[in-house]
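Hi R.,

Here's the chain you asked about this morning:
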Amino acid sequence: MVGDPWRGAGYSPRGVACVFVHDDGAWVPHQELTTGLGADRFGAAVWVSGNTMLVGAPDDDTLGSNAGVVHFFIREDREWVEIQRLFASDGSGWDFFGSSLSRSRQNILVGAPGDGCDGYRSGSAYVFESELLRTPQGRVSPGP
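And here is the predicted structure, written out as tokens:
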């Protein structure tokens, strides 16, 4: 999996996530994932393990300009299928949610470096429980 968040025309990078498979001793392109939503820098952060993949799109405008989103995919047979989109519970413009990603067995951690919960662009990390993905279970920020 390789993210290419700047793929697109001119000043409107849509971004793609390119899936490669190992075939006969070489890595070859297999599937190219996009959102079809516009200039959201899809692929700015990627995380994959086994049959699970997360792809950040920090410039998504669903909750405001550049609020961000994370796309959650699972592999069915040989193809990746999007099953859910994750948002910050208090997401707003210029949060850039989805700029960084990490996952353990129990949790997903999503970075939002532009979030201003503790001052101008102080940043936050949102924690999602893997079994309860729809709603963040907490937020970590650089408080006083």
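One quick note: DSSP finds no helices and 13 strands in the chain.

Cheers,
M.
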